[in-house]
Structures are given as C-alpha cells and as structure tokens.
Design a protein that fits this description.
Blueprint (H helix, E strand, L loop, with lengths): L2 H30 L17 E7 L11 E8 L2 E4 L4 E2 L5 E6 L16 E5 L7 E4 L11 E6 L4 E10 L1
Antiparallel strand pairs: 1-2, 1-9, 2-3, 2-4, 3-7, 5-6, 5-8, 8-9
C-alpha cells in the first residue's frame, strides 16, 4: 500500500470519527450534564385566576426517546408546569404556545404562529413561564415542549379552558 492510500484512509477515518464523536456528544451531553432540578411555585396563587389546564402526553408511543408527562395550569400571566412534569432529556428544549389542537409528531409546529416562552428549565419538576404581554391565551390550544436543535416534538399538552 502506498503513502497516498494511507493518507486518504487516515483523513476519511478522521472525518468519520469526528462526525460520530460530535453526534455522540450531542446525544450524551444532556445525560452527563442535566439541567438543575427546579421546584418553582406560583406566588400569590390564591389571588390568581386559573384560565386553563393541560396534561403533557407521549405523542409518539413508538418513539422511546421523545416523551413527556405531567400537568400544567395557566393563570392570567403565567404558565405553571406542575411538579409531576417529566420529559426525556435532550438538547435545547423550549416551551411553546401553539395555536393548533392535538399537536402530533407530524404537525408542522415551526410554521404555526407559535410563541416561544423560553428554554425548558429542567427535565422534571415544577417550572414557571411568563406569558408575554399582548398575548391572548385563548388564541392558543396547546403548550408544547419542542427540541429546537433537531426540530422535534417532545411532548404536547392540549389546553382545557375553564
């Protein structure tokens, strides 16, 4: 074997190895460095008006990686994800308000008029997300946990308005 073939093989091996290492790192990172546990409460809960509730579901039962469960409550200016909340870990999860009902893995969430409430604070536990001023919550039918890194639905929750 000549030096040219060895060099080409080495370069190809380095490229494949670097790509596999990068992909593996993205998948393993959330397990090695999970976000901290949170346990946020609703301040002055007694004085707030409950507008809607919802339950996160496992939208794709054949997908063991992207799942979620737990409840949420929406108040006038706040979405409170309850302490029973849990999703499978992953990179760059966000909380979206989505105008669609019954969001499933084939729903084109990115092309809806969704509102990004921010990055998910933890994979489990209670968390609060402010509803931006000017947003009419009645225009939205779902709260969705969405992976921005890979444009994948993690877990949707249909809203039941009071």
């Amino acid at each position: 074997m000549n030096i040219k073939h060895v060099t080409i093989s080495l370069i190809i091996g380095l490229i494949i190895g670097a790509g596999a290492g990068f992909a593996g790192g993205i998948l393993v990172f959330p397990f090695l460095f999970p976000p901290p546990e949170v346990n946020e409460t609703v301040a002055n809960k007694e004085s707030k008006r409950e507008i809607a509730t919802g339950t996160f579901i496992h939208a794709g039962p054949s997908d063991p990686i992207h799942y979620g469960s737990g409840n949420l409550t929406i108040y006038d200016d706040l979405i409170h994800i309850e302490s029973d909340f849990e999703v499978g870990p992953g990179p760059k999860y966000h909380v979206y308000l989505v105008p669609e009902l019954d969001v499933m893995p084939d729903t084109d969430v990115v092309n809806t008029m969704y509102v990004d409430l921010g990055r998910l604070k933890a994979f489990s536990g209670s968390q609060n997300y402010a509803i931006p001023e000017g947003i009419n919550i009645n225009d939205y039918q779902s709260v969705v946990i969405w992976c921005e890194q890979f444009s994948v639905l993690i877990s949707p929750a249909n809203l039941a308005f009071n």
